[in-house]
């Protein structure tokens, strides 16, 4: 058997023993200091997943930072924080806080209320 095939099989066998609880995001440096919050809205009666990426040294700086808010944060937050951190590393953009707001679902039936939240009221609205 080819050595590459044996290696690939070994990786597959080992990967079956890894669970999501084993995921250590500290090695995903593009996410930086990301913190997760679940916020239940009293006004709309549902919750939101909020991801906040803080600039390096945020806790000790005492500074105020511009904030970038991302709607559709479940999809865009990982990409935006990686781009932000790459550009910030090269000092092409200033330090900022990046906030991603997510429903945690992709479809209306599963709880994505994008069409409700991002669409003006209408008698003819269809989800």
What does this entry look like structurally?
The chain has 127 residues and is α+β, with helices and mostly antiparallel strands. It has one domain (22-117): Rossmann fold (3-Layer(aba) Sandwich). It contains 4 helices and 4 strands; from the N terminus they run αββαβαβα. A hairpin with a 4-residue loop joins β1 and β2. The longest helix has 17 residues, at 73-89.
Characteristics:
4-stranded mixed sheet, 127 residues, 22% strand, 4 helices, alpha+beta, Rossmann fold
In short:
The chain has 127 residues and is an alpha+beta fold.
What is the makeup of the main sheet? Answer: 4 strands, mixed
**Nearest-angstrom radius of gyration?**
20 Å
Query: How many separate helices?
Result: 4
| CATH hierarchy class name | Alpha Beta
> What is the number of independent domains?
1
Strand content: 15-25%
The structural class is alpha+beta
* Shape verdict: globular
List the SSEs and their pairings:
Elements: H1 3-15, E1 33-41, E2 46-54, H2 58-61, E3 67-70, H3 73-89, E4 97-102, H4 114-117
Parallel strand pairs: 3-4
Antiparallel strand pairs: 1-2, 2-4
């Amino acid at each position: 058997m080819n050595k590459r095939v044996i290696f690939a099989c070994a990786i597959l066998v080992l990967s079956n023993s890894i669970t999501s609880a084993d995921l250590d995001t500290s090695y995903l440096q593009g996410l930086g200091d990301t913190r997760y919050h679940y916020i239940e809205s009293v006004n709309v009666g549902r919750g939101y997943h909020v991801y906040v990426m803080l600039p390096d040294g945020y806790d000790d700086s005492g500074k105020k930072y511009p904030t970038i808010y991302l709607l559709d944060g479940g999809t865009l937050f990982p990409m935006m924080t990686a781009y932000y951190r790459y550009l910030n590393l090269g000092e092409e953009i200033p330090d900022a806080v990046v906030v991603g707001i997510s429903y945690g679902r992709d479809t209306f039936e599963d709880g994505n209320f994008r069409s409700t939240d991002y669409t003006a009221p209408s008698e003819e609205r269809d989800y």
